Amino acid sequence: MGLVAFTEIGSVLMMRSSSNRLSGSAMNDIGVLRNAAIVFDEQIRWVGSMDDYVAGRTAGQWSNVSEISLKGHCVMPGFVDSHTHIVFAGSRANEYGRRLQGVSYQQIASEGGGILSTMRAVRDSSVEELADMGIRYALSAMKYGTTTIEVKSGYGLSVASELAQLRAIRLVREQVPMRVMSTFLGAHDIPPEYRDNRAGYIDVLCEEMLPIIAEEGLADFCDVFTDTGYYTIAETEYILGKAADYGLRSKVHADELSYVGAAECAVRIGAISADHLLCISEQGMKNMASSVTVGTLLPGTAYNLRLPYAPARAMIEAGMTVALATDCNPGSCLSENMQMMISLACTNMRMTVEEALAASTINGAAALGLTDKGQLSPGKDADMIIMSNEEYANIAYHFGVNHIEQVWIKGKKQ
Ligand code: NIG
Ligand code: FE
Fold first, then answer.
1. What does the domain layout of the chain look like in residue ranges?
2. Mean pLDDT in order along the chain per 10 residues (414 residues)
3. Considering only CA atoms, which residue is closest to atom 3 of ligand 1?
4. What's residue 400's pLDDT?
5. How far is the CA of 84 from the centre of ligand 2 (A)?
6. Which residues line ligand 1 (CB under 6 A)?
């Protein structure tokens, strides 16, 4: 692939960090370069001022580069959506209607709706049908600027259906230009067949599903929904310990609906991320701040369930590494639009626009252990999104519209 140069860029957000994450107050250091140029092939080769680029060109440095003028627009790393459930089936619009009338998410779940409702639809679907749904959502997410996306299983809850979901995620990975990461979430709920035999289902997870998943390389991570009415701390530690033996890194759906000490648990086991955190404790924040565990906030879920938001300000002040993701799923947040999450994070969690953008790029990559994504500096993948205007704050300020005009993945225009 030949070299391409974006020239006359109004502003580039570099998101540069030698530790491949921005934590606490450093989340504001997003590396804004005005009147700039970027030279790239599959990777970023050079970033600097327009003056330096022109000087280099005059000295013969960029003789075989094809130039594209961006006419003053803003360029940033593609969004890294590190938490989604986009491989699913069916619709839960009816549950949304009931929730608007005041029925709680937990009440609907206890009546056999919720995750189990999607489970029934997934069990009735083929791998291809599941993959089609995932591809549709992934390509839609890409139009809103997402260039890396994580997808979880967790709606099959049987050996055959969890494997079907993971194989569908593999098909999505093969058929979209984005980087797709896969997470095994067999511990999303207890399936009805095992309602009176939790230990039996946990055995199936650990002794039947995990060996096949590891053998076929179907997942990068293992996740557990650790909450009242779902999995306990002891069960979480047991399942994620077994998964680690098979080489899967840990993630936790932590302290979402109630405080159970799941953030502290995630830190103890060295999880790569703890997600949701609406009910995190002060101690949980302190522990997370001095750990490798990224705190992934999903403001679309709080918005859609009409719950109090995660305490993002306290987390950042404590020094945590905070990421933002969509949680795109049919039950608690059906949105694949990272720009919407950024706007919610700013307006409703009082994050600065800079913090929200760092959380959606470099810190999303950290939540997936990816050091080649989420930054625009030499050697990183050329995953870039170009806004339709110069002002990056518009993503939060001028909300509800799509500001992304072009998406480039590994140096190729999509
Ligand atoms: O991340 N919290 C658990 N799981 C999903 C919701 C799943 C569903 O309702 O289908 C979430 O919010
Ligand atoms: Fe989730």
1. 4-77+373-413, 79-366
2. 94 97 98 97 97 94 93 97 98 96 92 94 98 98 98 98 98 98 97 96 98 98 96 98 98 96 98 97 98 98 96 98 98 97 98 98 98 98 96 97 98 98
3. 225
4. 96
5. 6
6. 114-115, 118, 225, 253, 256, 301, 327, 329-332
Distance CA 205, CA 398 (A): 45
Which atom of ligand 1 approaches the CA of 114 most closely? 9
d(CA 147, CA 54): 30
Q: Which CATH number fits domain 4-77+373-413: 3.40.50.1820, 3.40.1740.10, 3.30.10.20, 2.30.40.10?
A: 2.30.40.10
**What separation in Å is there between the alpha carbon of 191 and the centre of ligand 1?**
15
Ligand 1 centroid, distance to 115 Cα (angstroms): 7
402-408: Cβ within 8 A, 24+ apart: 402/143, 402/144, 402/337, 402/339, 403/339, 404/143, 404/144, 404/145, 404/339, 405/73, 407/78, 407/142, 407/143, 407/145, 407/147, 408/78, 408/382, 408/383, 408/384
Q: What is the pLDDT of residue 288?
A: 98
If one looks up domain 79-366 in CATH, what number appears? Answer: 3.20.20.140
